[in-house]
């Protein structure tokens, strides 16, 4: 919102603060002033000139040689290349020695052999954006249509010697999208009540509006207020300079007097209006309805648009003439031939307007105000002011009794506020008088009994609905800089990590200490990848409005994203990589929100040990990753044992995949990526694992007990068994534990031997058994007895002791 300082002074005559200082105060009070600038800054010696003669330049086809009256004794000779220059025009002249924006200095010069004492200027050369220059002068110099005195200062004439405050309006402060709203705000800051008047409408005809037009509104929820007035005998012409200047400084292009009046009222009151050429209406009626599916309509910007039921339209004889609250139609545009105008003043429901604007891809000054909400009870004043200006600037005659359909709900918001509450929240010592003064400056009507105020919120401030809003208003006017600075009270508590955070950090440190890099992947995947390598079968959750098909579903596994990361690095010749990720997956269902679960996943490929000292480089294998998982789980100190059982998963190698159990609960998987999957991803031998970290962190923990150093020695025995290939290590360890008795403390598998000499269907597995009793030294007989029981149990399943 661009706010003219001089326009503001029309409402606040005593406003005399320097513009930048005022901007600082406004920012400190709650509305950010993003910039303060002045079009006249750096410009001098620019005056009005009258073109006396205009001849073709003798040496240049596209140049003209002019003599111009610039208010001095002698006429100035100026060479000009503008295509629209002509004798008798009043133009903008930059005299020799003039300064223009960008540091441009005008000097006496020769152009193709002819002397030029100055330059004829376009508005753009005075720093005005070409988007707001009247269309007739976009490609040439600006020509005054009203009679002007040569030598008059152009900056004063166009009102450019005027500081402009650019306000950054937040969505809740729609009241500041109008000059009157800003006047209320600034008036409250400087303790001055704005002078706001609405001119009376003169030259009113005895003929009734209803004699020429009928009005119908189908849905009064979509359109709570709609009014239409008719002006006859309208003379279309350019607006006076004061009006054009105000519009251009506000960022709006002048068109003609009628359209400019509607834009001026928009800026003044924040109330959008629209003017139709009455004689172009298809019928003698105006209706408001929802658009029909695929209904075609050409807007003022000459674009044909296809409408839908989301759009609210204004029609005549059931033919659309405007998209309500957004943009009018080309067919009913006010042109130089217009003599009768139908003036619309309306209120459209904010959500309906927003959805309609989004559907057609238009965001106009009008739609922005309807969307944000505005003062519902300023419409009559805005209409009256517009009609008065039509009489003044377009010589119009106004038909009596505009047609109106009004279903507005009364704006009745009354809120209590206790002065004690104000002081408690703001930390101040304000009195009843101080609070009353703040509301008086805001022009909020109040009554009070004792310390309690009853505040009647004006309709221009729909953002105020609860006590906290009133507290903010009082604080703003009192001055944030005047609020006392106090230290917070309360006991200081040392910050610390909770159990989940601490263990997650330890797991990260363990993995990174073993060469893993942390990866962060998208939580959204394609439908195919969303369920890839999921820990359990589940319903996939699809986004209602995905940004793209590549990110359309919530993931149920971390592995798919990690494999993409590995593939990306391998493709760039990073052949030895290990990545992990701790993040959430989402298990969906058809009726409720998806369940979130925190997982830990990893993917490894390449060498596990790369040419270490006096060792041979070794690629990663199943047992390296298995050991890494065991190390991770051991940091948690869980009661239930961790088990690995062979499993089959379509994406994993059939002989190198295991389900991971904590006690009897499946908490993850581990395996080599299936060769066909690895080939599809252009990966070498790759191992992947995923754990339900949330379940592991929630599992029962072993209570930490500290034991004294053992005083008695342990006893160890080795046992090697020959078994069939299908017998697993877990099976053998379970048999050993069940039959060894309480003296066996540790079992370590230290060798697996496979060779055709022992049979292709056989394997030899060697274990180290550690026996220990903290209270005494074990005898050889006790250890042998336990060992013999183990041998018998193993032989019972067909194992051969070697």
UniProtKB/TrEMBL annotation:
Q: Cite the TRNA-binding domain residue spans from the record.
A: 40-155
Residues covered by the B5 domain: 410-485
Name assigned to this protein: Phenylalanine--tRNA ligase beta subunit
Cofactor binding remark: Binds 2 magnesium ions per tetramer.
Q: Spell out the HAMAP family in the cross-references.
A: Phe_tRNA_synth_beta1
Query: Which amino acids does the record list as binding Mg(2+)?
Result: 463, 469, 472-473
Q: What class of enzyme is it?
A: ligase
Q: Which family does it belong to?
A: Belongs to the phenylalanyl-tRNA synthetase beta subunit family. Type 1 subfamily.
User: Source organism's superkingdom?
Assistant: Bacteria
Which molecular function terms from Gene Ontology are attached? ATP binding; catalytic activity, acting on a protein; magnesium ion binding; phenylalanine-tRNA ligase activity; transferase activity; tRNA binding
* Domain called FDX-ACB: residue spans: 710-802
Cofactor(s) it depends on: Mg(2+)
| High-level lineage | Bacteria, Bacillati, Bacillota, Bacilli, Bacillales
Assembly: Tetramer of two alpha and two beta subunits.
Concerning NCBIfam families, the annotation shows: pheT_bact, YtpR
Reaction catalyzed? tRNA(Phe) + L-phenylalanine + ATP = L-phenylalanyl-tRNA(Phe) + AMP + diphosphate + H(+)
- The gene is pheT
- Keyword Nucleotide-binding, does the record have it? yes
Predominantly, its location class is cytoplasm
Task: Write down the SMART domains for this protein, in alphabetical order.
Answer: B3_4, B5, FDX-ACB
Q: Name one GO cellular component term.
A: phenylalanine-tRNA ligase complex
Question: According to its UniProt record, where is this protein located?
Answer: Cytoplasm
